[in-house]
Amino acid sequence: MITLKSAREIEMMAESGALLANVHRELREFIQPGITSWDIEEFVHDFIKKNRGIAAQIGFEGYEYATCCSINDEICHGFPRKEPLKSGDLIKVDMCIDLNGAMSDSCWTYVVGESTAEIDRLMAVTKKALYLGIEQAQVGNRIGDIGHAIQSYVAGEELGLVRDFVGHGVGPTIHEAPSVPAYGEPGKGVRLKEGMVITVEPMINTGTWRLKMDDNNWTARTLDGGLSCQYEHTLAITKDGPRILTSQGDQ
Hints:
The chain has one domain: Creatinase/methionine aminopeptidase superfamily (Creatine Amidinohydrolase). The protein has four helices and 15 strands. The protein has helices at about 5-30, 35-50, 115-135, 145-155, and strands spanning about 55, 65-70, 75, 90-100, 100-110, 160, 165-170, 175-180, 195-200, 205, 210-215, 220, 230, 235-240, 240-245. Helix 1 (about 5-30) packs across helix 2 (about 35-50) and helix 3 (about 115-135) packs antiparallel against helix 4 (about 145-155). It starts with 6 loop residues before the first helix and ends in a 7-residue tail after the last strand.
């Protein structure tokens, strides 16, 4: 079911999103060669608790962790673990926060230590795709307008756009209708209305968009072993245009 949020509910979700954005700002310096994704998990969980939030992913559909930490060829839903990160690794950190009953959801990608030209390009294209999609999140537009903006741009960059996982509505639970694919046809799909809160979250690979699932039935990884990148924001549809609730301000 699609729920329309009141102005008060959106302000509460913005507070939740601000906390989540602060976590990502802290991770910019925290993520270094030699730490583990389990260190990231503990850091994030402690930061959320210290700021009176709840790590909402814990227990969601049986998931056990505050974060998804997906490394290199892992597309999404990677489990935190204790292997040290190496310079040149690409890690996606995804989390959801419940703050006073208000939900927010955001994934950000980080390169560990030294980057490469391939990683820089993948990250730049994925981030631009995110904001091109967000630009289309206007009252009266349709879900397909968001996906088409992303898909048409990524196709020109000759990278793989993941289709198996999509954005979604947010609040009062982590996932609600509508689905928000990073592909689609303009003028098709659910019409966007003031008060809707959704995520836009393109996942883009250096090679094929196709994937395979790990035996844990959670973690998806690229079929060809190529790198994968994801950026995600939670945003509200307003009469003045999209309002990014998980904005980090400078990114």
